[in-house]
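Service request form, structural biology core

Requester: graduate student, group of Dr. S.
Request type: structure prediction, single chain
Budget code: on file
Notes: please return the result as structure tokens.

Sequence provided:
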Amino acid sequence: MMIEEKPALARPAPFKFEPHHFAPAAYNLESSIIRDILKFSNQPGVISFAGGLPGPDLFPVEEIREAADRVLTHYGTKALQYGLSMGYSPLREFIAERVAMRGGVQLSADNILVTSGSQQALDVVGRAFLEPGNYVLCCRPTYLGALQAFSFYGARYAPIEMDNDGMMVEKVDPVIRELHPRLMYVVPNFQNPSGITMSEKRRQLLVQKSQQYGIPIIDDNPYGELRYSGTDVPSIKSIGGQAVIQLGTFSKIISPGLRIGWIAASRQTMGVFERVKQCTDLHTNEFAQYVIYEFVQNGALDRHIERLKVAYHERRDAMLRAMSEFFPDTVTWTKPDGGLFLWVRLPEHADATQLFNSAIEEKVAYVPGKPFHPDGSGGNTLRLNFSNASLENIHEGIKRLGRVFSTLA
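Core staff response, request fulfilled:
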């Protein structure tokens, strides 16, 4: 009896990958240069001044652990459930009171939308206001994260030059008349990347231009409570009131890993922002909101901020001293009164991006300044972060950079 041999199973044809048809806005996205540089910064022995990182040695680990225990003990499943898109109401009330206290404006929880860090706040603003081709009036340089968020919605930019008093607002009229920007975006306190603080006179003038032309101001304020010298300047929010949209975050004053920020705006504007936010997430991390609210009770946040200010003040001064000692006379830099950053200007012919490779050879990292310039200028500039390094590493890292910069004619 013959056994009929069964034919072998046919093998499927090899899978051929076909690129997906991404939307142009997604396909054309560029990765963050800061995230790319962090890959080099993590190499053994490299002293990094690149990331905009708070000092991890100052994170309130024990206090956060105790706050989390209280949340789980007293709220349990409630803190682990879905929440409101606007955010945890007691935390929104706390934020409203704090912004009002510091800004001299009347706010309630209805004026606050909790977000996943201030980067989501920028995304919500971009979704709500921008269409392809719309212009955003901003500083030159300006915060790279804002450029990334707004560019996804097709924004174009009208950069205004800065001096030691911030954006040169007196130059905006012809730009506004020509380009009709949809938004004005500023980081007025210890700006990322320059460290410059906008003067009160310029803030008042910016509010006047906003009212004259009917253009909303986005007052991005992640560093306002981190002042180490000089005197406080009234916030743009306090000058412009409900017409100003202010962004804030706990990332720099508690921990970035908790990812809790907020938008403070008028109730009418907030209605739009709430609906826009629901397109990106149903609600911000509820548990983290509960934990932060527990942490900030009984003045704990103010005490923690004072510890940060003492430490960062010392690190800023250490970097300034080292730069005076090791940088050549052809290099200049800002002397910020607060925040996390210093801004360095090399001779005009120098290219900070090309010099980065030499810096890595010296085992030190920074962020080239060109990506912070929406018009492609700033090739001879760079940003240094002083909050995420020990005093010893600040001295040694600046010494290494001094060797790199000494090669410039």
